[in-house]
Amino acid sequence: MSRETVISVEGLSKKYILGQNKAGSGGLRHAVEDLVKAPVRWVRGEGKKAPQGPNEFWAVKDVSFSIKRGEVVGIIGRNGAGKSTLLKMLSRITEPTEGRIGIKGRIASLLEVGTGFHPELTGRENISLNGAILGMTQAEIRKKFDEIVQFAEVAKFLDTPVKHYSSGMYVRLAFAVAAHLEPEILVVDEVLAVGDAQFQQKCLGKMQEVSTQQGRTVLFVSHAMHSVKALCTTGILLDQGRIELRGPITEVVAAYSGHAPRRGDPSTLASNRSLGLSLVNASLHQTEKLGTLIVRAKFQLDRPISEAGIGVHIETTAGFELCYLRPETTGLRFGQRSGELQVEFELTSLSERLGAGTYFLGLSFHETNWKCCLDRTPVGEFVVPSLDFYGTGYPPKFEKDGAVVLPVRLIQVG
Question: What is the pTM of this model?
């Protein structure tokens, strides 16, 4: 690695065998599981069966890139694109099947809620534990301790075992430790979405400070494109385990949002192979009614889903998500489904809700307990026509007046 390069990745790949225990690839935990389960398999007769042919799944395939000191890199892509697997390999949590990783400096990772925390230890004890894992001395931990507690806003619960923390408290403390103990490289996955909006902004500000003022490197994974664009300067777009695009963050976000050509078969818009689910095709049709949009979509399900639902996402052309209509809220839910699912629904009164301009619509697929199993997939753009909403002769336009239109009624003039 050159003097300025802190992360160097060459030909990195990670292979899993679907439907089989990943012995040899998951470390000690999987080895112990194999040892415990072996007698049970033998009693059931499974131990006598000949091994079946491998069903290989490459979560990451032949990925190469380098990142310099002080870069803030957004890693984006749909569910199943390989983002989390890539970060786990960079963080030395998962061993690669092929390829080489070179890292210069101390790395702090926040990949899951409570990463590196021991549930029986208190918040105070976990700060010390995490610091030690990151290679900090006790003197360094004590120096940063008060800043960490203040940032995480958990002073009242500092001597409470973290197993009693909410997921939001977990994330606040975990991020505070990771960001304040001065790692050379900070890796943050979608876990910040667990926190409230105010804390997310606080974290974004801290990451900007870490990168711009302290010259540290940040790798950030998020589906919130406005956060990615606000924080990152460059981006990496992953698709089916491979790098689709590397470049300025605006170009990468545009490609991800469907505003630029994408590689691959256009007949399948998106898929989550591990769940056997794909959005085969989708289309938008604007009717003659003012601001009415008809959406048609066809999904292919390779396994039964006990409760299916569709989420609707509306974005600006800059990639900022204006609204996310969840299936449990809107009623776009269809009970138990398998095979092919065709859906048609209507969005109305758009001109009474949005300023005139161009917007983008995407769809996501949800299953039992409304877990998102197919991430927001761009379907296309639509135009909200001008409407003299206030009767002033000046129709609200997105470029001048913002995206949202709200009724205003004058009551009195003094």
Answer: 0.58
